[in-house]
Structures are given as C-alpha cells and as structure tokens.
Amino acid sequence: MDRKTSAKLLLLWTGLFFSVTTLAMPTQSADVASLINQRLSHMKDVAGYKAQHHLAIEDLPQEAKVLANSAAEAEKLGLDGESVKPFIQAQMDAAKAIQYRYRADWLSSPETGWQPAPLEQIRVKIGVLSTAILTGISQTLTQDGQFTDRAAFMKTVEQANLKDSDKERLWQSLRQIMLKNGTHKNAGMSH
C-alpha cells in the first residue's frame, strides 16, 4: 500500500472512529445490539467485493487475526478475553452466513445497479464498530451486570440473510461474556 492510500485510510479511520464513538457510545444493552446490527449491515458489501474479486468468503488467517486482536482489546476494556472469543466467533460466523446467502442468491438473480465498497474501507468501519461493541459490552456488564432483554436484542439485530438461529447464537454467546475479574452476573438469569 502506498503512502497516499495509507494516509487516506488513516483519515477515513479517524473520521469513522470519532463519528462512531461520539454518536454511538453504548450505555445500555440495546445499544450493543444496534452496534452488532450495524456491523452485520456491511456484509452485503463484503460479499459483493469478494464476489467481484473472486475471493473466498472464508478467510481463516483474517479470522484468526480478528479473534486474537478482539480478545486482547477485550482484556484492555476489562473483559475476560477467553469469554469473549465465542461471541467474536459467533459474529464472524453470522457474517459469513450472510455473505454465503447473498452469494447464493446472486447465482440465480444477480444484483444490478449496485457496487460494493472497497474491502479495506469496509474493514476499517467493521473494526471501529467492533471496538464500540466491546466497549458497550464492558459498560453494560460493569453498570447493569447483565444482558437480560432477549426480545429487544432479537428485534434490533435484523439483517437480510440473517436467520433467527444466527441471532440466538449471538445472544447466547453475548450472555456468556464475563468481566476480567471473573464475575459473571448473568448466572441464574433467564435466557
């Protein structure tokens, strides 16, 4: 990547970071669901870019990088990194499922009049949202001690090609996240 492209990406990331953190700093569990929904809303662009460039949907080295970086970031935010990993994996699996479903639909009915955003640009947006999601989880667990409103979560996380089973896995893995000190205030709460 040349310097000009690097500078543009840095400016884009900085602008996105400040707009997402200023406008969408989560303070309650509904905000976390909204941020997850925003993150998943970018999967059509990811699927389209990968289709145009003949790239596989599954990118295991990228997934391993995201998982490791997310666990480390979670630790910095006061979360237990190991308890975050199943949630991060659930997000990545839901994202892949959405992409596969778009690609399958496009086999019989190609999308017309639409162009996906560049993958690097999308990954910057996803990265900013991922940080905001982890921040929101930490705040919710610290302030409220738990995620309890499954109905609101299921209603808020609503994307084309996202199935209820995908959302249920996200919800269940979200509820298993613990604070770094090992507290898990969700124990005994209804699912």
Q: What does this 3D model show about the protein?
A:
The structure is a single chain. The chain has 8 helices and no strands. The chain has 191 residues and is mainly α. It has a single domain, classed as Chorismate mutase (Chorismate Mutase Domain, subunit A). The protein is globular.
Break the fold down into its secondary structure elements and pairings.
Layout: H1 3-23, H2 29-40, H3 43-52, H4 60-76, H5 81-108, H6 119-143, H7 150-156, H8 164-175
Helix pairs in contact: 1-6, 2-6, 2-7, 3-5, 4-5, 5-8
Distance linking N and C termini: 46 Å
Annotated CATH architecture: Up-down Bundle
Average predicted local confidence, pLDDT: 86
Number of continuous helical runs: 8
Give the tally of β-strands. Answer: 0
- According to CATH, the homologous superfamily is Chorismate mutase
Report low-confidence residues grouped into runs of 5 or more: 18-27, 185-191
Largest sheet: none
Give keywords.
191 residues; mainly alpha; Chorismate Mutase Domain, subunit A; 8 helices; 69% helix; globular; disordered C terminus; Chorismate mutase
Structure in a nutshell:
The protein has one domain (23-175): Chorismate Mutase Domain, subunit A. It is mainly alpha-helical.
